[in-house]
Amino acid sequence: xxxxxxxxxxxxxxxxxxxxxxxxxxxxxxxxxxxxxxxxxxxxxxxxxxxxxxxxxxxxxxxxxxxxxxxxxxxxxxxxxxxxxxxxxxxxxxxxxxxxxxxxxxxxxxxxxxxxxxxxxxxxxxxxxxxxxxxxxxxxxxxxxxxxxxxxxxxxxxxxxxxxxxxxxxxxxxxxxxxxxxxxxxxx
Length: 188
Description:
CATH architecture: 3-Layer(aba) Sandwich
Strand order of the largest sheet: 4-3-2-1-5-6-7
Largest sheet: 7 strands, parallel
Order of helices and strands: EHEHEHEHEHEHEH
Helix content: 40-55%
Strand content: 15-25%
CATH topology: Rossmann fold
Structural class: alpha/beta
Radius of gyration: 16 Å
Number of helices: 7
CATH class: Alpha Beta
């Protein structure tokens, strides 16, 4: 299975987040999956990719040329795809993925996550989307989503678009059992 992971490129986050990245990387590798990620050699991205590779996963990085030119592209991947811009990067990540997992991250991670949720809502894909809520990081997002449901901005059926979990293993377990869950489309 091709698993796309969105996560932080920061080296300055707590050890608990690096541990989660290692846990996910090892689970992806042990499961015989392929990792698709943002292609950098920094932060959780680096920890995830190195660990996945060490456990036998094939790893594909997808990075815009402007970020590669900053000297933070991973150079030891099985494949590195260099794109012209962020939009092309996201399109390639999305097209290659059979499932999406979001570890904690900053604005880029949040934007990538919201885009794949929206695309699933609009029936552009039916891939599982899992949000790993390490250390309660995504609690505010969960509450914001609940507010959208409670105040009528989102249909209750859209709760099926994604799954919040508390560990990397729970994320993979969800993906294994929900590889093609049908969601009512916003367009229906």
